[in-house]
């Protein structure tokens, strides 16, 4: 069972992102404030859960959270400011959209930039340690997956419905065969050197 939060007596939000290592699509972050009496036996890092479990937990989190928000930062911004800054920006925007502002921010990972004057702590593998970070990881992952599944309808050759934009062999083969789309991150190494594509 994960801990609820870092500071028992503060209104604390957890935040996490999804899609940082993808070749296409947005990087997506969520921020969540859970009530102090929240618990769930299956809630953990979204990567450890099946898609079915993630979707079930998404509904529970959205129904029971004090507040939550999700933000996509698109390819153009990722290419302009780099993926780390885009990930942090997505988290900042999610925190800003919360209807109740937190007194403390818990972040998954080891990099963050101050959000106003609100104190914060980075927690490596925090989505496997704290419920609010795990909840944010699930909301970010499910929102991004849904976005990529919608995009799949327009660009079925890349099989985003299955790979969600991650660098699978099939995804790279499709880039090689069909070229890139407006949804590819042009600042990323889309193909290994031996398969370089002139764009």
UniProtKB/TrEMBL annotation:
<dbReference type="GO" id="GO:0003723">
    <property type="term" value="F:RNA binding"/>
</dbReference>
<keyword id="KW-0255">Endonuclease</keyword>
<dbReference type="InterPro" id="IPR022898">
    <property type="entry name" value="RNase_HII"/>
</dbReference>
<dbReference type="GO" id="GO:0030145">
    <property type="term" value="F:manganese ion binding"/>
</dbReference>
<comment type="function">
    <text>Endonuclease that specifically degrades the RNA of RNA-DNA hybrids.</text>
</comment>
<feature type="binding site">
    <location>
        <position position="17"/>
    </location>
    <ligand>
        <name>a divalent metal cation</name>
    </ligand>
</feature>
<dbReference type="GO" id="GO:0005737">
    <property type="term" value="C:cytoplasm"/>
</dbReference>
<feature type="domain" description="RNase H type-2">
    <location>
        <begin position="10"/>
        <end position="199"/>
    </location>
</feature>
<feature type="binding site">
    <location>
        <position position="16"/>
    </location>
    <ligand>
        <name>a divalent metal cation</name>
    </ligand>
</feature>
<keyword id="KW-0479">Metal-binding</keyword>
<keyword id="KW-0464">Manganese</keyword>
<protein>
    <recommendedName>
        <fullName>Ribonuclease HII</fullName>
        <ecNumber>3.1.26.4</ecNumber>
    </recommendedName>
</protein>
<feature type="binding site">
    <location>
        <position position="108"/>
    </location>
    <ligand>
        <name>a divalent metal cation</name>
    </ligand>
</feature>
<comment type="similarity">
    <text>Belongs to the RNase HII family.</text>
</comment>
<dbReference type="GO" id="GO:0043137">
    <property type="term" value="P:DNA replication, removal of RNA primer"/>
</dbReference>
<dbReference type="InterPro" id="IPR024567">
    <property type="entry name" value="RNase_HII/HIII_dom"/>
</dbReference>
<keyword id="KW-0540">Nuclease</keyword>
<keyword id="KW-0963">Cytoplasm</keyword>
<dbReference type="GO" id="GO:0004523">
    <property type="term" value="F:RNA-DNA hybrid ribonuclease activity"/>
</dbReference>
<dbReference type="InterPro" id="IPR001352">
    <property type="entry name" value="RNase_HII/HIII"/>
</dbReference>
<dbReference type="GO" id="GO:0032299">
    <property type="term" value="C:ribonuclease H2 complex"/>
</dbReference>
<dbReference type="Pfam" id="PF01351">
    <property type="entry name" value="RNase_HII"/>
</dbReference>
<keyword id="KW-0378">Hydrolase</keyword>
<dbReference type="InterPro" id="IPR012337">
    <property type="entry name" value="RNaseH-like_sf"/>
</dbReference>
<dbReference type="InterPro" id="IPR036397">
    <property type="entry name" value="RNaseH_sf"/>
</dbReference>
<dbReference type="GO" id="GO:0006298">
    <property type="term" value="P:mismatch repair"/>
</dbReference>
